[in-house]
Amino acid sequence: MASTLCSSASGFHASQCGFCTPGMCMSIFSALVKTDKAAARPAPPQGFSKLTTSEAEKAISGNLCRCTSYRPIIDACKSFASDVDLEDLGLNSFWKKGTDHADVSKLPAYISGAICTFPEFLKSEIKTSINQMDNVPIEISDDDGWYHPRSIAEIQVLLNSNWFDVKSVKIVASNTGSGVYKEQDLYDKYIDIKEIPELSVINKGSKGVEIGVAVPISKAIDVFLDGNLVFRKIADHLNMVAGSTVTVQVASKRLCFTLEDFLEQPPCDSRTLLLNIFVPDWDSDNVTFETCRASPRPFGNAVSYVNSAFLARISEASSSGELLIEDIRLAFGAYGTKHAIKARNVEDFLRGKSVSASVMLEAIKLLKDAISPSVRTTHPKYRVSLAVSFLFSFMSSLAGNLNEPARTDRPNGQELVSAEEYKPVGKPIKKAGAELQASGEAVYVDDIPAPKGCLYGAFIYSTHPHARIQGITFRSSLASKKMITVIDAKDIPSGGKNIGSTFATLGNEALFADTVSEFAGQNIGIVIAETQNYAHMAAKQAVIEYSTENLEPPILTIEDAVQHNSYFHPPPFLAPKPVGDFSEGMYEADHKILSAEVKLESQYYFYMETQVALAIPDEDNCITVYSSAQMPEATQSVIARCLGIPFHNVRVITRRVGGGFGGKAMKAMHARAPTIQPKFTYI
User: Fold this and answer.
1) Nearest to 482 by CA among 410, 558, 547, 540
2) Are 537 and 479 spatial neighbours (Cβ–Cβ below 8 Å)?
3) Which of 112, 223, 616, 647 has the smallest CB count inside 10 Å?
4) What pLDDT does residue 74 have?
5) What are phi and psi of 129, to 5 degrees?
């Protein structure tokens, strides 16, 4: 089955740099396994699975790709769907669009039930070993530092023990939150709560659904999908991320709060355990429920700009026949406050009213007063406008009918025009190595096995523009104790230069700031540790002391640069040559160009594979560097000049790059910094 997935991804050109492709294949694999087990579904046509096209699209909705584009990836997934129209699939190497007939027999063969899953004998062995552990006391070894309590009473013992410290102990279930909320220090003990039955409970009754806090989101989604309108909408929202009651365990007491009361409570201390969340069952009659979410990415782990949930019960006025809002709940979160809120002033205004333009306008005015992002919240006006647009969209659906807002599907077909005169241009050919990338066998720099004694590095960056660096200290923490040393400008070998990147005619950029930080984000040093995680965490503990005495203020805008006569002079080959009299030509032109000013913030190079290099010392004062760089020849030059050795002593190997977009051209050379210290050569 794995080879079928890889062949499909390759044939539909669904892999470019290939860094994300194995994850895409695993996601569609999981969806195929799930639908194959659905006995209630009818048997699919020969060569297809029980998967539908909408399920195929959702299967990869939480995956990221930055260079292939999603169209060919979705086509590869949809090629397995039972309801797919093969003519709608895009360019592929199985048939030529516009001339060849689309036929399932030309696709990689899919055999239902041929999917390999976890062996049953291993499941049995694991189950047996777990049963044998049931009567074992909850002790840990010094080697791994993990506790595995199996009841609420046992975890209470751990939370009340004298060694429990919230700064060094972490309670985990699946630990997916670390994808959004980054850890700032290391932990030396972990408490795994997945084996506590009370935290994995799912109770579905006439009054609602109780979900334990350790229940995976995927299971919660399945439970809500098998419910009424409100529950199904909640499932849709959970698919994007990941009025209820909350049960918590405080010391020996178990307390139950409404969600609003819980959010109004002071922050829980480190010994309070969340047990479950109860979602009440709303009758679906005359009820409309919608959730909305806006974030940098529509699916997956991404902190939202605004979350919202709207529920309204509608009734018909006996006299006029108008639709009246009998009851309404409006909740907003993540817009720049500590917790979610209910827009009570808007709710009170809307109850008993029919939806009209004037009512909607007044509700929007009241909402703008209720949604007030706190100081230093990014994009505050944008967040308020999102909340307003979500409410407007919901109320618009109430104005016409009780049904879901209509959604029109845009056609996604491709129209291609080809000619025979340019053969073999246009012939469907697979990309070389695409199946290797799809299977996960393609080796990127970080996949290379670490040599014995390998050490790792993480940069310390300046947080202040144009300031003298007085010194660097480290906060007392577990992470800082893992640090081996710090490399900075003074460690550059004799005969070498402080050079981090270069480009012909554009000059050099320093590898490390030396006494003065020229801009925020400049490299100041690099922390060396025994693992990459230790190095990153230790770098976060750095405290840099700055001084701006007798220094000019930093130039932060174009206007500042003009005022200070600070210009970047492009090399001649990049500077346009004036032809004729520009001013006179514009004056005599029939049409004038309207001028305006647009200011753009900084851009972020978002490649999937982060900057990485592996440096290995070789014989006779040589060094081999495995690099993920778009300019390996310039990388060789920078390393040689920084170390003060001949160019031919430096060998740079770039097998493949996991996305770059220019971000791994000059700046990627900085990742080779630890090569300057002979005794710490691996990163």
Assistant:
1) 540
2) yes
3) 647
4) 93
5) -65, -35
The residues near 99 (Cβ < 8 Å, ≥ 6 apart) are: 418
* Backbone conformation region of residue 644, classed left if phi is above 0, alpha if psi is from -120 to 50, else beta: left
The pLDDT of residue 102 is 87
> With DSSP H G I counted as helix, E B as strand and the rest as coil, what are the percentages for the chain, rounded to 5?
30, 20, 50
Measured at the alpha carbon of residue 273, what is the angle toward residues 270 and 276, in degrees to the nearest 5? 150
6: pLDDT strictly greater than 80: yes
Other beta carbons within 10 Å of 311: 20
Cα distances from 321 to residues 17, 283, 314, in angstroms, run 60, 22, 12
Q: Residue 222: which pLDDT band, with cuts at 50, 70 and 90? A: confident
- The residues, ordered by sequence, that sit 6+ positions from 148 with a Cβ below 8 Å of its Cβ are 133, 138, 192, 195
Asked if residues 468 and 548 have their Cβ atoms less than 8 Å apart, the reply is: yes
Nearest to 431 by CA among 13, 108, 73: 13
Q: In this model, does residue 244 exceed pLDDT 60?
A: no
Nearest to 309 by CA among 327, 295, 289: 289
Structure tokens at 46: 């020969």
Asked whether residue 622 carries a pLDDT value surpassing 70, the answer given is yes
Determine the Cα–Cα distance for residues 90 and 343; give it in Å rounded to an integer: 46
Q: How many CA atoms lie within 13 A of 434 on its CB side?
A: 23
- Are the CB atoms for 152 and 195 separated by under 8 Å? no
DSSP 601-647: -------SSPS-EEEEEETTTEEEEEE--S-HHHHHHHHHHHHT--G
Rounded to two decimals, the pTM is: 0.78
